[in-house]
Design goal:
With 387 residues, the chain is α/β, with parallel strands linked by helices. It contains twelve helices and 13 strands. Helix 8 crosses helix 9. The longest helix has 21 residues.
Length: 387
């Protein structure tokens, strides 16, 4: 009987999501006895509709384009699922002789991975279900970091560095850059790496792990304006006040997905209103997860490795696991992959630890920068100022 493999993408794309797809497909092509390498079109919805893309005959020259393509080449989704749909998925896997399933995604996707694994077990199906970590937010539990984060970190660090150079050249305003991250401040914190080398880094960094105090923010900016006339602030989209409420009311919420209000414009308006000083907001948004130009080579290599190892592990008989990374050393950088039980990952959000946030709650520590620096894949371009 023929055996088939299925790959499913879930959640928001990253600059290296397709790289993991490349690693998985390349590994699957090496396996004897595999007839079809399927991809579910647009995530779990495609699986439920039996809408599959066949990848086994894609030529290598086309497959390699995945390494430089952002987004999801097979489509992804944020589907909300009930147990009945997991039952239906398991039945489809049996019907289509799919013996191996790889889920590539973040917290929600790993929850889906675990639930389908348990459903297949309950039905007595011999289906190997494995998880491939993916999130620009770096909030998946167990693993030291997730593929997708290193490139997002490089993007925010480089972009903030460029904004800082601009503001230094024309120091007439406060610029607030808004970074992605619902409850975890990893991307926002990575902006601190903009200051490596020549000091072109942000003046203030505000993370969702600390309650945001508007009065303290205004005082931080006021004190800086006594010393300099151009200031750069980086703030997380998920900032919340002491009561746990977003500082800007979300414009839309559905399930776990929240479409936040414009935090950067709000904070810029706070500066204008309370300090009478020119300010503006900047919001990279989706650019932060779609930039191939700023793709981290370390991130790319680990994403390919994660896809390849998840596929190999499934063929070796592993199931109900996710590929994770353990930090071995920072200098030189070395991380070792391992398989984590999916139960320890499912919807367990990993936020910034206290030791990575400064005492004032408006910046990060050197310990965080040492942890983060290797992941962005090399130094940022050197800049100069004679001013």
């Amino acid at each position: 009987m023929e055996e088939n493999l299925l790959i499913v993408h879930g959640g928001g794309p990253t600059a290296v999501l397709n790289v993991s797809l490349y690693g998985a497909v390349r590994e699957a092509k090496k396996q004897e006895g595999i007839c079809h390498i399927y991809a579910a079109r647009n995530g779990t919805g495609g699986l439920l509709k039996k809408d599959f893309i066949e990848l086994e005959n894609v030529p290598e020259e086309k497959l390699r384009l995945l390494l430089q393509t952002p987004g999801s080449a097979i489509g992804t989704s944020r589907d909300e699922l009930e147990q009945g749909e997991y039952e239906r998925m398991a039945d489809i896997l049996a019907e289509k002789n799919i013996r191996y399933v790889l889920f590539n995604g973040g917290n929600g996707t790993m929850d889906t991975c675990g639930k389908l694994y348990k459903t297949c077990q309950a039905k007595g199906l011999d289906v190997k279900v494995m998880g491939i970590p993916k999130t620009m937010d770096n909030d998946i539990a167990v693993t030291d970091h997730s593929p997708g984060f290193g490139s997002a970190a490089r993007y925010i660090a480089q972009s903030v560095r460029e904004v800082c150079a601009d503001v230094k050249g024309l120091p007439i305003h406060v610029v607030v850059v808004e970074a992605s991250g619902r409850n975890a401040g990893w991307i926002t914190a990575a902006s601190a790496l903009a200051g490596d080398g020549d000091g072109l880094g942000p003046d203030l960094i505000y993370l969702p792990e600390r309650p945001f105090d508007e009065d303290a923010f205004v005082e931080d900016v006021r004190k800086l304006l006594e010393k300099k006339s151009g200031i750069v602030v980086v703030a997380s989209e998920g900032l919340k006040d002491a009561a746990g409420e977003p500082v800007v009311e979300p414009i839309f919420k559905v399930g776990r997905s929240t479409y936040f209000g414009d935090v950067s414009s709000h904070l810029a308006n706070v500066v204008i209103r309370r300090l009478g000083y020119k300010a503006r907001g900047e919001k990279p948004g989706l650019l932060g997860r779609a930039s191939i130009a700023l793709q981290s080579p370390v991130d790319r290599d680990e994403a390919e490795l994660a896809g390849r190892l998840a596929c190999k592990a499934a063929f070796d008989g592993e199931s109900g696991k996710m590929v994770a990374f353990r930090r071995v050393s920072a200098e030189p950088y070395k991380a070792k992959p391992f398989l984590a039980d999916i139960d320890k990952v499912m919807l367990r959000e990993r936020t910034m630890p206290d030791e990575y946030i400064n005492a004032e709650g408006n910046g990060v520590t050197e310990e965080f920068k040492e942890w983060c620096r290797p992941l962005i894949g090399g130094e940022l371009p050197e800049m100069v100022s004679y001013n």
